[in-house]
Design a protein that fits this description.
Length: about 140
């Protein structure tokens, strides 16, 4: 059973990540043995500029959230923080993500002694898949 708590993940977010990452406002929703659910709340600072039309969250914010949520989820899966670095990330943007809250589901595809591969799915408020990210990490210990 996974014993890492929401408060532990939030404390890690506050102590390890840069202030601009903390400004994303990521929230831990649920911790399971197989995945961790996060929520990226509405944030006008994450909206791309230019043109008229609806407020769309920029791709840079989605990529940053994917990387951050992946590291936080690894902490839950490993039941401790393991210092790691991103070695590869692939993002797929399937439809625009409006600035009205985004659900992020993170699962480990592989989590070994030296490396981990994580998949993050981003869903809009209707539950439709809007973006994915596959992130590879090397453990530094």
């Amino acid at each position: 059973m996974n014993t890492f708590t929401k408060s532990g993940i939030n404390a890690l977010l506050e102590s390890v990540f840069a202030p601009w990452i903390q400004d994303l406002g990521l929230q831990v929703v649920e911790i399971n043995n197989d995945n961790v659910l996060f929520y990226l709340p509405e944030n006008d600072n994450l909206v791309r500029g230019g043109g008229s039309g609806p407020a769309v969250v920029c791709g840079q914010a989605i990529a940053s959230a994917a990387d951050t949520c992946s590291v936080l989820a690894l902490t839950s899966f490993n039941k401790k923080f393991r210092n790691c670095t991103t070695i590869e990330m692939t993002n797929h943007f399937l439809r625009p993500l409006m600035n009205n809250g985004i659900e992020i589901k993170v699962e480990a595809l592989s989590n070994g002694r030296k490396m981990a591969v994580i998949r993050a799915e981003f869903r809009n408020t209707l539950g439709k898949l809007a973006a994915t990210a596959t992130c590879s990490f090397a453990y530094l210990e």
